[in-house]
Amino acid sequence: MFIGRERELASLNKLYISDKFEFVVIYGRRRVGKTAIINQFIGDKKAIYFMGVESNVKQNLENFSNNIMELGIGIRAETAFVSFQAALEYVFKLAEKERLILVIDEYPYVARSSQSLASTLQMLIDKYKDNSKLMLILCGSSMSYMEDHVLAYKAPLYGRRTSQMKILPFGFADTCRCFKNFSNEDKAMIYGIVGGTPQYLLQMDDRLSVEDNIKNTFLNPTSSLFEEPENLLKQEVREPALYNAIITAIATGASRMAEISTKVGEDTSVCATYLKNLTALGLVQKETPYGEKASRKSIYSIDDNMFRFWYRFVPENHSIIGRGAVDLAYKRIEPHLSDYMGKVFEEICKQYLWKLLLSGKSPVEFRELGRWWGTDPVTRSQTEIDIMGEQDTDTVLFGECKWTNEKVDAGILETLVKRSEMFRYRKVHLYLFAKNGFTRGCVEAAERIGNVTLVQYKELLEKMKE
Q1: In CATH, what number is assigned to the domain containing residue 377?
Q2: Co-location of 316 and 211 in the same domain
Q3: Which of 10, 153, 206, 393 is positioned for an S-S bond with 179, CB 3.0–4.6 A?
Q4: Rounded CA gap, 93 and 124, in Å?
Q5: CA torsion angle 157 161 163 165 (round to 10)
Q6: Span 366-391, pLDDT tens digits
Q7: Same structural domain for residues 205 and 311?
Q8: 370 within some domain
Q9: Which residues 6+ apart lie within 8 Å of 269 measured at CB?
Q10: In this model, does residue 395 exceed pLDDT 60?
């Protein structure tokens, strides 16, 4: 069953019905579902689908020729093209009379084996685009290659594309749609463990408990997820060992540049370069306190839940996992899961607030959401606010998120009120999110204050399904 991606499919179909030349670049990390989107889109349309392989130009050209032959238009089965230019020109000519889609999936593999491919495509696009009904789709998993050699200003194909799509993992709402049998709490846990990457979600079995799913994947040396982060890094970067060390440092508590540098034993200048690459790959996020553009208070966090979970718990238990002591490894992990889920719950709450905004139901029309941390001028102590979103210099939203088994009491709300008073906004709306609801005192305090919305996790989940 195909789930989600309605917006991407709508965009592709809109381009398709233009009936003129279109050139779409689709890119994103491996396992994120790019090929699935393309196959869903071309399913009922006349299309040539060619997937590049990590081989030489001869092998890729033969495969491409075979894919063209399978279309069965005018070319004899025993014929093969002598060059990519001949093959591509043939496809462009086919599309002069009728709508035709050409997909080159894993384009970086083909382009690396044929150095002139990008220039050839550039020449043919310029030659045929005004009279062509071809819809050309280039798709790639190598983020750096697609950005540097297809989308970048100096790339031969720059300026030719009519659309580009960066495919991201599912959000929480679409992740929930993948599972019928998990409890509400388990859905959040699974999202926290593997994120929204479709291929990883397929490894989760909603007939089993979260504990058993963790044991069957992250704690199982024969599972595809057990070595997945390291394998992905090897495909994307040249020196995976140092990248591994940096991600592990962040996952185990180092968040500031100086802390990361000390933990991995490298200069901050070296770490800065590696962190920049990890950020470009979507694995690490650089955060500054909300409203501050450049700040010495910047921190780094892992932006992908599967990577965050793996690097937080697998390396430190690697030896006992390798010896088959699965139950012992899980016993070491379990006490930390609730704390681990705190950041995940914050992200889920942010997605909920974005949904409210986009559906016109948010009391504050914020422009962005983020965290804030700094010094409380009254207590002179460090403090933070989980969620902050400014509409203008007059109006703001503050939020606090609690993933705990206990009901949230009035003291938590009072703390949020005090923290909101550190800022000079005239109109303030407060959100309090709780995993298991609120005490009577908290509900009464919220009613008395007036500008407070209390959201229990199960209510949040129901509204995100709408």
Answers
A1: 3.40.1350.10
A2: yes
A3: 206
A4: 10
A5: -20
A6: 999 999 999 988 888 999 999 999 99
A7: yes
A8: yes
A9: none
A10: yes
Pair (149, 197) in one structural domain:
no
Instruction: Quote the distance between the C-alpha of residue 48 and its chain's center.
Output: 28
Concatenating the DSSP letter of every residue in 235-257 gives: HH-S-HHHHHHHHHHHHTT--SH
Q: Which residue has the tokens 């719950």?
A: 345
* Through-space distance between the first and last CA atoms of the chain, rounded to whole angstroms: 20
213 and 264 fall within a common domain: yes
Query: Across the strands, what pairs with 374?
Result: 383
Task: Report pLDDT for 78.
Answer: 52
> Do 238 and 385 have their domain in common?
no
Question: Do 221 and 323 belong together in one domain?
Answer: yes
CB 463 within 8 A of CB 355: yes
* CA distance to 287, 388, 424, 456, per residue, from 290 (Å): 8, 7, 14, 25
Range 227-233, long-range pairs (CB < 8 A, 24+ positions) = 228/200, 228/306, 228/310, 229/306, 229/307, 229/310, 229/311, 232/29, 232/30
Residues ≥6 apart with Cβ < 8 Å to 205: 212, 213, 216
Are 207 and 294 members of one domain?
yes
- The answer to whether 138 and 148 are in contact (CB under 8 A) is no
CATH number for the domain harbouring residue 92: 3.40.50.300
Contact present, 363 and 431 (Cβ < 8 Å): no
Q: Which domain holds residue 197?
A: 173-341
Quick check: helix, strand or coil at residue 397?
A: strand
Rounded to whole angstroms, the Cα distance separating 189 from 342 reads 11
pTM as predicted: 0.92
In tens, the pLDDT along 287-346 reads 999 988 877 889 999 999 999 999 999 999 999 999 999 999 999 999 999 999 999 999
Residue 51 placed within a domain: yes
Q: How far is 323 from 116, CA to CA, in rounded Å?
A: 50
In a shared domain, residues 372 and 301: no
Q: Which of 386, 379, 314, 402 is nearest to 350 (CA)?
A: 386
**In what helix (H) or strand (E) does residue 39 lie, and over which residues does it extend?**
helix 34-42
Nearest to 13 by CA among 122, 107, 137, 121: 137
Determine whether 410 is exposed, middle or buried from the number of CB atoms within 10 Å of its CB (0-12, 13-18, 19+). middle
